[in-house]
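Dear colleague,

Following up on yesterday's call, I've attached the two folding results inline so they're easy to grep. Please treat them as preliminary; we haven't cross-checked anything against experimental data yet. The first protein's sequence and structure tokens come first.
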Amino acid sequence: MFKKNLITAAFMAAAIALGTLATSPPAQASAQVYNPCAKLSHGQTKFSGFGANRVTFATATDRNSNVLTITGCRRSGSGYVQEWQDWGYGGLRGFSPQNQAWEDTYRTPTGSFSFTEALGRRNPGTTLRYHTVNTMSRWGGERGATYNQYFEGAGGPSDENLWKYMNEGYYEQAAVINYNRLPDARTVQGASFAIFFHAGRVPSAGCVSTSLSTVTRLLKTNRPGDRIIMGAVDDVFTPYSSNPFGAITARYARSGGPAGILGVPAGNETGGLVRGGAQQLFRNGAITWSSATGARITTGAIRSAWLRAGAQNGALGYPTTEEVRGLRSGGAAQSYQGGAVLWTAGTGAHPTSGAIRAAWLRAGGQNGYLGYPVSDEIKGLKNGGAYQTFQGGSIHWSAASGAHITKGAIRSAWGVKSYERGVLGYPTSDEIKGLKNGGAYQTFQGGAIHWSAATGAHPTTGAIRTKWAAAGSENGVLGYPTSSELTLTNGGKYQTFQGGAIYWTPATGAHISKGGIRSAWAQHGYERGPLGYPTTDEFGVPGGIRQNYQGGSILWSSFTGARSLIGGMATKYDATGGPVLGFPTEEQTAALNGGLIQYFQNGAIIMTPSKSYFVTTGKIRLAWVGQGAEKGKLGYPTSAIVTVPGGAEQTFAGGSIFLSSTGVTTVKYPVAPAPAVVPSAPASPEPTPTASAPA
């Protein structure tokens, strides 16, 4: 590139000699490499030759030097051999260090570029597309459609006049270096133009120049797609080797080489990996290859997570894609044979694989309610299980249960029960919604957890859960659980529900407690009171409902409400045939001298101080009450009502009551015996007078 303000060779020579041209410090000054073809054969170049038939090198000892060694290499078998070597000049100020040569820098771009076009006075026999220069030949420097392209026309101030420079000896023959142009790259306006390999050996604004004979030789031998690698020695060559025709080298070249994401090589290409794979390390990552997956780049946090998981030897295997960015919340991901690694700034990078990954994908992956993983998969759980946490919950897996998601309130309730270590064990389903009143539930090896907005989340297990299920679960009379299972005395357990509770002991089994009967039981202290635990559910009896307990029963009717029968009262009630007495109308109450009495619709049961139980009914009971009940002269009953001639009778401590067949009651008290007549002692007979003796 000469441009409108061309610096003449004489002026440049003088400026270099006097040291008046501004320069930048070299990255590193190194000895010139005179065997670049051998370097290329061993994959010791940072820029790829892309397997071209011919590769030309143009290298300087450092970035600020414009004196170049130029070497032509031809592909031969599995390497390259040298065809020729010459010298020449690059840009006046040397090479650009970043594979980038903007206009007016007077630097030659560093990198690997193809040849596809040429120009000059006459075609020397090249197979490159050839432009025979005429008076109207221009190379576009003006911004627009012709920028960095050959065209014919008047041109503008920045367009190069090819006819003029050809006649001055510079473009007698020239090959176009495809910098900042297709097919190597999209053309960027203002990023330099007219970078040629041309005759007229002289420093320029960015071209490579050498002898006319060398340029002509290159044109005659090079085919479209052959390349030139140019730059400072340390920017072009590396001590690390790779296969110059291999997939890893090709992928590195497509990534931008040393100016790309990977930076410079940091190790040799090494084979012998699992399943015949290969890998090469670079400053910022690696390229890993297998026949099944091809060559893939791994870098940064995602690569670190892959290495933690065992790299290609682990569950993930080889990468199958490059890193994909622009995911939800600014995330990134890379896929592998056995899963993927996902990253966000907030969560870091974590792999997902196997059954846990499959469950996560069913939930929508990172776009679903679980979001991104926030941990790696953690193994070594109970029974060989594993789990992984995500932004919105976690996934647990075991061989017996499979992989299932837990989240929200249900997950919290499971955590209270010690997760998989507790009574519930591992989840056996995901959360299932659509229950009554908008509820949800999830099943586990040892039970389930149900949730509703009104009750929160609570587990059900064992016999209590079985009983609840038999009663219709949340759709039944009990509704949703309102507590977890709680421990009681004597090894008992209970759990509350919206409509009641279920109690269980090894001796009694599981039984439901609800409604008015439950309220009556509560008045006696639940299982701590004299009734103890329920031994049945509620069951129907004529006119009402009954529930039995260890220490008695509770009966309910719409007329009497719920009343309890405790101990001997219950036993006596059942022994006499409950329907005879009807439902209790009140609780048992204390009677005289430690006795008890309980009234029913049709009578009463009395416990005497000696703990004997007797039933009184009908007119006999009324008569007894009329006499003051146990506090009256009759006192406590001493017999049941028995049939006697002419009616029925019941005896009491102080008498009896007789009920005639005509319905007349007679209270009988014992007749007091007549006082015993004690005969008085007979009077002593008066003594018979006797004559007294004479004085």
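Below is the second protein, in the same order (sequence, then structure):
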Amino acid sequence: MHKLQAWLRGKWAIPAISGLLIIASFAVEHLADGAFNVIFGPRWWVDAGAHAHHGLDEFTLANLFMLIAAVVAGYQILISAVRALSTKMISIDLLVSVAAIGAIIIGNFWEAAAVTFLFSIGHALEAGTMNKTRSALAELVAVAPDTAVVLREGTQYEIPAHEVASGETVLVKNGAKVPVDGVVLAGTGSIDEASITGESIPVEKSQGDLVYAGTISNGGFLQVEATGIGADTTLARIIHRVEEAQDAKAKTQAFIDRFSTWYTPAVMILALLAGLITQDVVLALTLLVIGCPGALVISIPVAIVAGIGRAARNGILIKGGEYLETSGKISAVAVDKTGTLTAGKPKLTDVFVLSPTMTKDEVLAWAAAAEAGSEHPLATPILQAAAEHGVAPVNLPEDVTPVVGKGVVADVDGHQILIGNPALMADHEVEGLLEATAAADSFASAGKTPMIVAVDEHIIGVVAVADQIRADAPAMIAQLHDAGVSKVVMLTGDTHLVAEAIGKATGIDEIHASLLPEDKLDAVVELQQQGHTVAMVGDGVNDAPALATADIGVAMGAAGSAVAIETADIALMGDNLLKLPEAISLAKRTNRVMKQNIVIALATVAVLLVGVFAGNVTMALGMLVHEGSVLIVILNAMRLLRNGRQSGSHQAAQVQDLPTSTDKAQASQIS
């Protein structure tokens, strides 16, 4: 009983009942007289004097079945039309309702039943397709954890996941879902993060690493401090964003909506005029049915939902239909160097000695002594290298003076130490600057950031720091070109020599170096003035002005950043650069599908209208072809649910073990 009730409430119940009634009507009408009388007895409803052979008119049982079929299939259509009219909207449902009612009035019950039956099938197909295209969202909701095991006063308790308090210790065992966002306190384990990042390769987790709700433990045992629960988890934010994105309209969809607002009344006026001029009511009603822009109206939303759903399943979060459509037009991509083309974790690669009385370790020790009191980002790799070589500074400098754009001046144990660029050395008139500058230029041309070290106005050496080029950066550039991006531009605050070396190694088309944040914004504006649709990839901090100005702002590794998920137009949840060309390729495929769907819809209406005036298309045939076009549009959009291209994550895995040029330099120079 419950199954029957559920089926009756389902989307296919009305088309099925209406279809059975239509079949029953045909069966009654075409059943032989003798066979009918044997099975059902004399046809008492037929006037004995009328139509001696068939006796079929608008009051026969066959026509009654057709009438009921039209009512069953059409009553919800009529209700939708009335509701739309109440909000001053003339909808497609109104066209079908008027045509069906008109067909009933003139006694054309088959046409009324066929039109409403086929239209109800179209509605069911649309509903089913939208549910399927939203399957990525359903999958995200399905991975949300229901329960959590928390540790309270040394005892394990299993509780609903939403009842975990922030700061509590959650236990993640082998095979369990991680119930919260948090930080690993103890233990090691392997976590499948595909639901968040789209990457199929599990990630090893240990103390200090971040974990996300909805991911799954493939092995090990973790104690996790809860930092994000319920609606504050990364998974919840993703689900919320995908819900909003799939409902957001693209510019093309908004245009189609405006077009339909004028198009539908125009069809009604055309049908009225045709009926008045030709005195042919059937022609007028047929025009109403043929003119339904059903395939046109669904052509855009079904593609948008499918495209955004496919992207979400692959760890690419697109904010809405407008951004998906714009991404399909991207012709230039601007990327920040640090953290995008490079790993964002610089290391000391070279120590070049210029003083005959010094060793590499001594030069490194003086450099570390000066940097011990510096907040500059490049101080960290120098101090780390000094610790590894056993020459880490014992005490902090007595005085540290940062010189903006040049370096640092520090007083250590009565000695003045300078560490910075040639301009800093020139200001202090140190000795040996010519040879040091040549060495610095040599390192810079190799993609490294050099710093000259001087003690008491004598240069003792040059240290060089380099950020490691990401293994998948060259592949990203190549795939962006393959995806139709004509120009990939690097925007960096680093020096020209370093930027050129990185650009040469990765295949960048254009380089802009030594930029301030406002300079990056100007570079993006310049690209836009050249006619490009620009995507900017950055970390959202010093790149914020450029990200806001670009047509599309892209955030990398957004799984750990709530701000990126909320503000970026496209958020790549994992740290895989190859997701960027994948996102652009998907957007371009979506745009192609939308254009194809519009052509299919308009061409179908045009051909049918010609057929109607030529007298070759009936109301039922027109609706059949019309619903066929709806089905074609739907199937075309559903192609987006398939992976159109390889994400490239496994390709990246194959090259990540290859040593970069800076790796080789580090191995040969520091030791």
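For the second protein, one point worth flagging: The radius of gyration is 35 Å.

Best wishes,
A.L.
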